[in-house]
């Protein structure tokens, strides 16, 4: 059930971007790729320091493949599944060297041939690393899209991505992940969202859910807080 009109959703995205999008340059695609591989099921507060530690020691595919697996593990710890991710990072670098002349490819199809890269990570690399109109739908983007009411509760990230791409113009697609992640950390939190401080509360479908929760149509964690916003 959609709680917000497409036009109102676009207005909300523009407001979030205006407040939170201050990424002035594209980020090195290799840096984004490493971040994406390490980020799966790991909080950003853990991923970013791990990524920086690794890249401070080895910042190219050629340098990373020379590192022993146990050294990569130590550098990226405590990201989730660090044993597996250390192997994925090294395998990804081998593929970059052998298949792509050590360059990160700029198409989703080629990116998804790299170990550790699925749809979300590929979209993230294209969005952040190449400034291309893709939307990486992570937990923040999916949660906020549901709360704003543009996609139903329980929508899978892949479906959310298709819906957002059908509504947002290319310029907005490039900025959505970055802005939504910052907005999701600061205001639209998974638990105890700060609805009283939300700049897009007037457009939000989350505030309407109290009318429907007895029918089981819109249950999202944080129910008790919305009534106090």
UniProtKB/TrEMBL annotation:
It catalyses: Hydrolyzes mismatched double-stranded DNA and polynucleotides, releasing free thymine. CDD domains: ENDO3c. InterPro entries: DNA_glycosylase, Endonuclease-III-like_CS2, Endonuclease3_FeS-loop_motif, Endouclease-III_FeS-bd_BS, HhH-GPD_domain, HhH_base_excis_C. Keywords: 4Fe-4S, DNA damage, DNA repair, Glycosidase, Hydrolase, Iron, Iron-sulfur, Lyase, Metal-binding. Residues 38-186 form the HhH-GPD domain. SUPFAM superfamilies: DNA-glycosylase. It holds the Pfam family HhH-GPD. PROSITE patterns: ENDONUCLEASE_III_1, ENDONUCLEASE_III_2. Its EC number is 3.2.2.29. One of its GO terms (molecular function) is DNA-(apurinic or apyrimidinic site) endonuclease activity. Its cofactor is [4Fe-4S] cluster. GO terms for biological process: base-excision repair, AP site formation; nucleotide-excision repair. It comes from the Archaea. Belongs to the Nth/MutY family. This is thymine-DNA glycosylase. It comes from Candidatus Parvarchaeum acidiphilum ARMAN-4.
């Amino acid at each position: 059930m959609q709680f917000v009109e497409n036009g109102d959703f676009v207005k909300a995205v523009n407001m979030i971007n205006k407040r939170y999008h201050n990424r002035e340059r594209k980020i090195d695609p290799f840096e984004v790729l490493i971040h994406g591989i390490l980020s799966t099921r790991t909080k950003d507060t853990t991923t970013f320091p791990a990524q920086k530690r690794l890249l401070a020691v080895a910042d190219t595919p050629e340098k990373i493949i020379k590192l022993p697996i146990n050294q990569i593990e130590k550098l990226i710890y405590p990201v989730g599944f660090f044993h597996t991710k250390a192997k994925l990072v090294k395998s990804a670098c081998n593929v970059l060297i052998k298949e792509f002349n050590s360059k990160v490819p700029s198409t989703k199809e080629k990116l998804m041939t790299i170990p550790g890269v699925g749809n979300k990570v590929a979209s993230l690399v294209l969005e952040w690393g190449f400034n291309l109109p893709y939307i990486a739908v992570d937990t923040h983007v999916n949660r906020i899209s549901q709360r704003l009411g543009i996609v139903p509760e329980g929508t899978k990230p892949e479906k959310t991505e298709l819906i957002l791409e059908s509504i947002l113009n290319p310029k907005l697609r490039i900025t959505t992940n970055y802005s939504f992640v910052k907005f999701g950390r600061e205001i639209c939190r998974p638990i105890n969202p700060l609805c009283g401080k939300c700049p897009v509360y007037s457009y939000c479908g989350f505030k309407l859910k109290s009318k429907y929760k007895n029918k089981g149509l819109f249950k999202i964690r944080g129910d008790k807080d919305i009534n106090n916003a």
